[in-house]
Automatic annotation (TrEMBL):
GO cellular component: cytoplasm
Taxonomic source organism: Nyctibius bracteatus
Keywords from the named record: Cytoplasm, Lipid-binding, Transport
GO molecular function annotation: lipid binding
InterPro entries, per the entry: Calycin, Fatty_acid-bd, ILBP
Protein's UniProt keywords contain 4Fe-4S: no
Positions of the Cytosolic fatty-acid binding proteins domain: 8-25
Gene3D superfamilies, sorted: 2.40.128.20
Recorded family membership: Belongs to the calycin superfamily. Fatty-acid binding protein (FABP) family.
Name of the protein: FABP6 protein
Gene designation per UniProt: Fabp6
Localization (cell): Cytoplasm
């Protein structure tokens, strides 16, 4: 993988299953509308394993995450939630676990392709014995 393969500015081109995804991750409705079919520009600066990843939204709002592959970093979701994550590189893809979803990004045919999938969360309660 080229040391600067991700560097560039990428304009939003299209999405698949956007509504279903943002509902599952409980994104507030104003953020859902802000993200729907809007021309988000993602700007990536890569210097080896160091990245600055900025999403510019219409109206002047932007979110920037700075991280180094393999090191824990302070991150922020597009909904404004702050969290810690260790971003990895797997088979040329950037991989990160956000609070409610798993996120990958890769360069395919000169395009930045980001895939977010919901992380299943199972909760089990302890079974108690019923008195005889």
């Amino acid at each position: 993988q080229d040391n600067m393969a991700f560097t560039g500015k990428y304009e939003f081109e299209g999405d698949e299953n956007y509504d279903d995804f943002v509902k599952k991750i409980a994104l507030p409705s104003d953020k859902i509308e802000m993200g729907r079919n809007c021309k988000i520009v993602t700007e990536v600066v890569q210097n080896g394993n160091d990245f600055t990843w900025t999403q510019h939204f219409p109206g002047g709002h932007s979110t920037t995450n700075t991280f180094t592959i393999g090191k824990e970093a302070d991150m922020e979701t597009m909904g404004g939630k702050k969290f810690k994550a260790t971003v990895k590189m797997e088979d040329g893809k950037i991989v990160a676990d956000f609070p409610n979803y798993h996120h990958t990004a890769e360069i395919c045919g000169g395009k930045l392709v980001e895939v977010s999938s919901q992380i299943s969360r199972l909760v089990y309660k302890k079974k108690t014995k019923k008195p005889q």
